[in-house]
Structure formats: C-alpha cells, structure tokens
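COMPLEX REQUEST
Ligand: iron/sulfur cluster
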Amino acid sequence: MIGKRQIFIRFSGCNIDCKYCDTEDSKLGGIGKYYSYGELNDIVQSLMTPDVHSLEITGGEPLLHSEYIREFLSTYPYTAMLETNATLPDNLSSLTDVIDIVSMDIKLPEHFNSEDEWNDVYKNELKSIRVMEEANIKYYIKIVVSQTTSIKIIEDILNDLRGIVSSSVEVVIQPVSPMSLWQSKENLFVLSEIVGKYFKVSVIPQIHKYMEIE
Ligand code: SF4
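STATUS: Structure written out below.
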C-alpha cells in the first residue's frame, strides 16, 4: 500500500519455496511468538497512530493461519490488507468477509526449481482469483519480474487472466530487488506495455527497501 502507513502482522511459515524469497526466516517457520487475540490487539493499539491506514497481514504465508486471522479480525474488526501467495484458495475463501483488500502474487516458472512446482502454484492462484471475483473483494495482482523474464510467459498468463479478472483490477509489476541487478530496464517497459493492453498497470519496486525501512 504505497505511501500509506500500516501496522505489519507477520506470520511464520510458508507452503511454497520461491527462489527470490526475501523473508527466509518467516518462510521457514518456527520463529516468532504466539499471541492471544487480546495480546495482539494490545500490541496493535500500542502502535496505532492517527495516520495508520490499515493492518498488513503478511508472512511467510498468512493463509496458513487463516483460522487465527479470522478469529482476530472478527473480534477486532480493523481495516486489513492480506498479502498472500494465493495458493490456498479454500483458506482465502474463509476470510473474504473480514479482509478489506488482498495483494496476491502471480508467480512465474523462473521463480521455482521445476515447471511442475510452478504449475501447482499457478493453478491455485487462478482458483484464488475466482474466489475473490465471486466474493467481490478488492484485490490487486503482483508479478515479480527480472530483466530476463520471458515475454511469452507473461502473455500466456495474461490470456488466462483476461477470462476471469475484472478489467478494474490493477496489475503491479515489481522488479526483483536489488535494482543494482538491473543493467537494463528495457524489459520493464516492454512488460508494462503488454499488461497495459488489458489491465491497469503499475511498475513499483519494493518501496520499503528504497526508504530503508525494515
Ligand atoms: S510465497 Fe513469499 S514467503 Fe513464501 S517462499 Fe515465496 S516469497 Fe517467500
């Protein structure tokens, strides 16, 4: 949520294994601490300032903890944004009435060690999109790209998305960090133009890294 202040609630553990993961500690799980709903609310309240826009529910993969999230937000109905890899559509479905906005990933084959691994992830992402379209929930799609990301794979994905994603949904192209890896930015412009044919598109790097905010 660019430019908006948020309170982050980071859950531990992830169900997939992206090569570019920048939250390795959270991905592996087994770290952090369990908080009761009341304890978590006390922490949120202690961090609350007048400019806070929403809670950001992130991970790891927060949908592994969907029952906890559902219970917490049912008891304390904050404005909440879920950041998810969108590979657990049933868990997502159980949260559509307590979450206000979803930032979901579409992963690419280059993010995994095998095509089969990616295929499973991608099928579930498409299912999650159907869940959100049916629930009429606000969401946007993020795709992490590199300077060698294949144009063809992006075109194939867009063809799939065109059938199920509302044209009002924004697609965010996120260049993989750090930007020093990018000798040429040409691919970003090409990818932006391709996505822009069908959807609203933004190219947005990881802003917190630029601002040096942990
Ligand atoms: S989905 Fe997120 S937390 Fe999980 S491996 Fe990928 S980048 Fe890391």
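REMARKS: Helices lie at 24-28, 37-47, 66-75, 89-93, 115-135, 151-164, 186-196, 207-210. The first strand starts at residue 5 and ends at 10.
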